[in-house]
Amino acid sequence: MRIVFVHQNFPGQFGRLASIFAAEGHDVVALGTRKASTVPGVTYYPYTPVAGPDIRAHHGRFGPVVTPVQRAYGAAIQARQLARQGFEPDLVVVNVGWGEGLFLRDVWPKARHVAYFEYFYAAEGQDLGFDPEFPVRNEETVWRLRLRNALLLAALESADAAVSPTFYQRNTFPIYLRDRIAVIHDGIDTDALRPDPSASIQIGPNGPRFGRTTPLVTYVTRNIEPMRGSHVVIRSLPALLALDPNLRVVCIGGSEVSYSSQPPQGKTWLDVFRSQVGEAVDWSRVHFVGRVPYGQFVRTLQASSAHLYLTYPFVLSWSLIEAMALECRIVASATPPVDEVMTDGETGRLFPFFDEKALVERVRATLEERDHSEAMAREARRRARETYDFKTVSLPRWREFLGVS
Q1: For residues 201 and 243, what is the distance between their CA atoms, to the nearest angstrom?
Q2: What does the pLDDT average to over 236-256?
Q3: For 264-334, where are the alpha helices, taking DSSP H only?
Q4: Which CATH number fits domain 2-187+390-402: 3.40.50.2000, 2.40.40.20, 3.30.590.10, 1.10.10.10?
Q5: DSSP 3-state assignment of 234?
Q6: For the range 176-185, what are the long-range contacts, defined as Cβ-Cβ under 8 Å and sequence gap of 24 or more?
Q7: What are the pLDDT digits (tens) for 383-392?
């Protein structure tokens, strides 16, 4: 079978599937904007987005259309070159959030086209309009969401099948479209992600080392920004540190912006939030380590005494499911993406997203009620294995959905 995966940042969600299908003898091809791919067995073709209007000249108004269309042309031109060389795939799988799939059906009309959907935007109650501290700037912000959604609807119209990783994400789409979108999680490797009571981490080459004997609160996000509750976590630090004089906090996350609005010019969101708590925090007990290698991320969670996960109503992070598999004692925001995968009092402790006092109280209970916390952590791992394991759950569903045997 000839299979094409398309993702501007390949492999993205498709790495495990592409690797396994290639190892089984399928002819697997990938398109993306990276210079090269390291997925074994996959033939990778980088494409170049086609130049278009300078969106900066229009205050970013046309960015939600221009940038995806540039990618769409680039991907389609690369696909057309392959078609002219005689390559005709049986299956094309595209993460359509980047716009790349817009013209691929016209290039490869005989293939089955599958659209992978992460999210459908709304003007209120999801990532936009959820946090009163960061209100909708103006009506043109909403218009840009309409443009993004228009391209998603175009992708759905041209797809033979569609899929989303969680029910919450699927349900961000209009009711009349939901039945057309299957739900299959990307899956995680729960065999590799296991608890390790002996795990420890060192902060920097000459910094302190922490293991299970230290009360260690951990927080992980791609970037320190409002979308993943960084402001709530940082503002809770004075009360968190007051729980125990030996308590330490380790925060993993970069200083860029992935999803939120931009911080004030010349500052990062970490700068902004740290300045708001200032001298109320003993910063020698709080360690912002930036982005770290995956192995260090795993060890940090294995050494954690209480792990924080917060998110707006938005795309669910893999890291929450990974934390469940690692048997972390989780304290998380009671927002819809989290509610789908966790149950308060069974797999962890949930709290209202904006309630810093509740966050601290849940951490206190997690540290003090050790037996109950560990029981919930074991249940979290069981649920992760039962529902989100790649090999035993997600892969069989993907095979059936894609028709790849």
Answers
A1: 22
A2: 97
A3: 269-277, 294-303, 318-325
A4: 3.40.50.2000
A5: helix
A6: 180/156, 181/117, 181/156, 182/401, 184/394, 184/397, 184/398, 184/401, 185/321, 185/387, 185/388, 185/393, 185/394
A7: 999 999 999 9
Does the pLDDT at position 58 exceed 80? no
Amino acid at 245: P
Exposed e or buried b for every residue in 225-240, given b needs 16+ CB within 10 A? Answer: bbbbbbbbbbbbbbbb
Which CATH class for the 201-387 domain?
Answer: alpha beta
Residue 97 near residue 12, CB atoms below 8 Å:
no
The total of other beta-carbon atoms located within 10 Å of residue 125's CB is 12
Question: What does the pLDDT look like over 167-220, one tens digit per residue?
Answer: 999 999 999 999 999 999 999 999 999 999 999 999 988 889 999 899 999 999
Tokens representing residue 238 in the block: 């004075």
Concatenated DSSP letters for 335-371? -HHHHHH--BTTTBEEE-TT-HHHHHHHHHHHHH-HH
What type of residue is 33?
Answer: T
Domain with CATH 3.40.50.2000 in the chain: 2-187+390-402, 201-387
What would the pLDDT profile of 281-321 be if each residue is shown by its tens digit? 999 999 999 999 999 999 999 999 999 999 999 999 999 99
